[in-house]
Batch of 3 targets.
Target 1
Amino acid sequence: MSTPHSAPPSPPSSPPGASGAEGEPRHAGWLELFFDLVFVAFVAQLSHGLHGDPGWREFGVFLGLYFPPWWMWANLTVSANLFQDDSARRRLAMLSAMLCLAVMAAAVPEADGDRGPAYALGYAGTRLVLLALWWPATRFPAPGRIPRWRPLTYCLLSALLWAGSAAVPAPWRYPVWAGLLLAEMVLLLTARGRGIPRRVHTGHLVERVGLFVIIVLGESVLGLITSTDHTWTVQAGVVAAIGFVLLAALWWSYFDFASTAAERVIGTASAREAYLLARDVGGFLHFFVTAAVISMAAGLATAVDDSAHDHLARGTVWALAGGLAAYHAAHALIGLRFGRPAREVAVWAVPGVVVPLLVVLGSDVLAPWLVVLLLAAEAIAHLLYAKAAMARRAEGVTG
């Protein structure tokens, strides 16, 4: 993960900007919030690619184009978490990364075609930004010093190879991209958190991930609203209203239970385990959480558009119901990673995955409003179960 820093004026025992205990309140800065705005555009571009009746190719392109910017967001988020640095140098680096990501977002509609080189060069630029943020951390005295070969391979070499991939013709450049991303993940996984000079700040990390979840939920709400622009009918209004209930239930359960559990588990872990949990849950598993919501955003928007039809196209239902199933499956993996017993997780995860998949199977005979209603009912049932389970645990503690 990236670690931005200013060069220390003298050899410190810990990096500058790393002061502040875990219990000290810490919130996202204005720069981080401004930086997130580029992902509003990114999410809109990606969601648009799943509108209509997407097939397996469209889903594959969506996941392939979403992972690199998400991966960069996770890197930069952890860097901001580990070091509180508001220097002009870091601001310029983050703004440069934002510009590179904007180029990638603009390239998304044709990234699997003529705009592929722009997408690759944009990502290469973000790796150079990471190098600029990592490099000062290599000058710290042991044990906080990061070996220089890590940023040189993880950032610089990756940037050069991504830039070189722009010259590789389609479709051969896509396996190259996949290989480069895999290499980055292997480097990170094999490091196992060694060289991280301080523990992650749990509150800040949970807040940052939660803000990204708000971004993707916001795209879902926006899709519901804009779809009614050209489908101003009673049926469209009903589907949009039920869709909003579905999103509200997801928001409620996520921020009352998922984020609370994350803060509790990561906050009580050892410094190294806290970093590994942040990497696995915030970096890897939340990719699937947020990708699932983006998919649902596209499915909901199409459901409003097609609300007058007898039934929704199968690709639309996969985007919507399949997205909800993937959302619950990702949270099940998060629960297991947090050490919850498999039997306890299965009680809510199995219905959360099976019910949406049953909706997919029966979608040919279900009206659009009924598809959305069944999914909203499942989300509400999930929320009520979580609230009841929390109440039972609270009674057990007080009793």
Target 2
Amino acid sequence: MTSVITFDRFLMGYTLGAHILIVTLSIALAVFVSTFEFLSLRKKDRDYDILARKLARALVIFFAVGTASGTVLAVELFTLWPPFMVLIGKVDILPFYYEIFAFFLETISLVLYVYYWDAFTNRYKHWALSLFVAIGTVMSAVFITMVNAFMNTPAGFNISEYLATGKITGVNPLAAVANPSSFIEVSHVTTATFASGAFVLLGYFAYRYMKNNDGLGREVYRKGMVVTAIGALIGVVLAGIAGDSSARMLISLQPLKYAAIELNLHPMVNAPERIGGIMINGVPEFYINIPRLQSILAFLSFNSHQAVPGLSQFPKSEWPPLFVHLTFDVMVGGGTLIGLFGLYLLYRIVRKRPITSRVLLYGMIASAVLIEIVNDAGWVTDEVGRQPWIIYNVMTVSSAANTSPSVIPLGIGIILFYLIVVPFTFYFANRVWVRREEKATKQVAGEAKWS
């Protein structure tokens, strides 16, 4: 039974990790397609139109694969966690319904936007469709995140009655949706996901710029990098602000998770910020202390007399795996480095200095890799930091899991599915882009459309 539960956990984490790679690109592509077409209309600039058309084709690919991946996740939820879905179905099902409407909005708008591009005499009406694509894409992520927020801070039903008798009473679906962490978590996840996709796109533009020897083609990528860098920086700054609020919120709503990610053994006043460190024989080792910084960040005060939570306040059986302290450090440290790099790019853009030196281009590519590590580290911190609960203080992962060995063949098939589909998606999107680029270079420079 324990081995099957472990497999359930691994499979869900593996699937979510793969799905996130697709989602980050989908959200960023939807936003930047709309942005580039708007710039092409306002500035009457062919280069922005080229970018909008090419990114729209990539968006179709990622949308198609993301839809298939989302279906797999839905099957997993019902197959791997049936008791969990019973509770969700009775208490917090509204986000799933709303997500379906967001999906329909995205699907219909994307079909009209891509296949009727040149049918609109008024191009602003065509551009308006891209707004609906972006809204549908982002709102799908918003509604799914609301369910995760419910898992962190459940509300909308009589929890004490459920724990005592197992009966679900006093259901208020709107209260479940508007649970205490919903707004902050949605803000953090959407901005972080957009920032992740934006930096990946920025890294791809930098890569294509270095591979392209055509002057006109390089100018397209240069403009793409400028706009994408600005969008990526806005995303990562907003994600940092929301993430800071989210971490501070844990003190009152999920104190055990807070103690784990900060590796606090005991409650402390004027607590230092601990960077790095692992537990050896119950004692933190190999870390760097920054005096008082944790309390300053936690309470936004230099003279707070409040204590931050400690692990010793909770039964050891309820402690999450303490490696979440390291994943938290990766998320914060990596996000900070990426933000500083983005600020430097913005400085050069504002001062009208070139951003196409080899060092900066390689920096963009490195940021694209690092941002995905940061994003996944953030999700690991959130989900593993809640262990052993699937719904915090309400339902454990073990009690929600399907313990039948019959889930293992299904899981192996899903693992193989993602091992093939995710690399193929990125490869195929790149090949479509490259073929169009090669076609364009063979045309007369003034007539090249890259479409």
Target 3
Amino acid sequence: MSLGATWIRRVLVIIALASLAGCATSPQERKEEAQQHRAAVLNAQLGIDYMRTGNLKLADEKLKRALNQDPNSSIVRNAYALLMQRLGKNNEAEDNFSKAVALKPSDGDVHNNFGVFLCEQGHYSRAYVQFKEAWSNPLYNTPEFAYANAGICALKQGDKKLAEQRFEQALHEQPGFSPALYQLAKLAADQGHNQKADAYLGRITGEARYSPNILALCLKVKRAVGDMNGAADCARDLYRMFPNSPQARALLQNR
């Protein structure tokens, strides 16, 4: 079954001095170790930024440099794992995700990212363990990401009931979390519950309303409930804001 959605990622590379292993024997060595760590995290941040802009060659250069500077940084291992995942180098991605969670088991973001990777590989039980590690951690500030990704993973397994439960749990953590609202609206619309779908979409506020997926679903649902003015608004925003999107092209072809 197709996911029909983009995984919800939360990649935050924070330039901060983490606790360092106590193997240095002098203040000068500790200072140099701290400097190497800061440089590694800075290069990891640059690597993530290059990934976001699609410059994978420079991302690879920065992240390999970061690994050389501090191979024992969970931040660096997580960032490099994401790049390997992007490049389809799954063995290297899994190896680096595993090292990242071993280096810092309390990092919910790393567990969430590892869960996404494992689910993409079809390792559903292992993915669930990682998502649960993330949302069960009281220090993880955004458990809604892990719940929502667990819902998307449940959809991939074909378990709509479990998916709905996970999306509702995400909303319990963050009532306005648009990825979960969109998924619940889509599930409702797929089952013909268009009024319910419309209610979920109506809870998406601000800039989150404006994405090709949400606008296309909005158009479909508004038509189904007989709100032609609302449907026209969604179509107008889709054409105006995302004219080259697959959703806009599909709509033009079907007119």
